[in-house]
Hints:
The chain is 0% helix and 53% strand. It has no helices and 11 strands.
Amino acid sequence: QVQLVESGGGLVQPGGSLRLSCTASGFTFSSKSMSWYRQAEGKERELVATITPAGGSTKYADSVKGRFTISRDNAKNTVYLEMNSLKPEDTAVYYCKVVIYAIAYWGQGTQVTVSS
């Protein structure tokens, strides 16, 4: 079965950095685009970044452009989100997502808190 497991979240001060990981299993990872989403308390889940199967193309939400970088290692079945210059408004639960045959699969999420 499809499994996505996120890790790397935590508490960081404004201006700090974190690197999130999402390790996948149960499908051919190298053939699927992967995405990171986030959901802040009381808000809707929003798309943060997407990467194509070979990693040749990426897309970002305007709010994170220039600060976040999505990447992947197909040999490790893992997608990453490098987050720099973090702001309090980046505080959220971060999820990775894959769509297979029109079905969306999500990980359990990892909490990122940006606070002094």
